[in-house]
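Table S2 (text version). Query chain:
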Amino acid sequence: MIALARMRAQARCYLRRCSPQKYSDLIFDDAPGVTLAAITTRGRKVADSVKVAATFHARRRGLLDCKLLPPNAGLLLSPGGSIHTCGLHYAIDVLFLDNRMHILKCVSCLRPWRVVFAPGRTRYVLELAAGRAAAAGIEIGTQLLWLKYRNADAAG
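Corresponding structure-token output:
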């Protein structure tokens, strides 16, 4: 519990020192072998394994390659905007984030073949397994913190 409090304090200090654009560039590259984990500032786990889609082709492909999204996985679209679920065979939760990682809009259990328009200040979109946002206690205005770690099989 003390380690979690220390990590949250360090992340807040880091956010205050960096401009939003600098912060986003440092964290959200789609380097191979790197995975992100998302938690709220209250310490609630949102996702353990978040992949980043930072290129046009990765954002366009999105979750179409996944037959079913694992419960603790997600996809971060950077930069993000309006999204659709055309071609998916399962429902997802969608979080629209601003440049400081505050949640602007939360859409729960978005069914296949639907379109959702992004709020005006959207910078990132986080797609999660259906029901994950409710399980993590996500509300509008909640801020997400990110942990970056290298996959064990890619450390070679």
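Notes on Table S2: The first strand starts at residue 34 and ends at 40. Confidence is low (pLDDT under 50) at residues 14-26.
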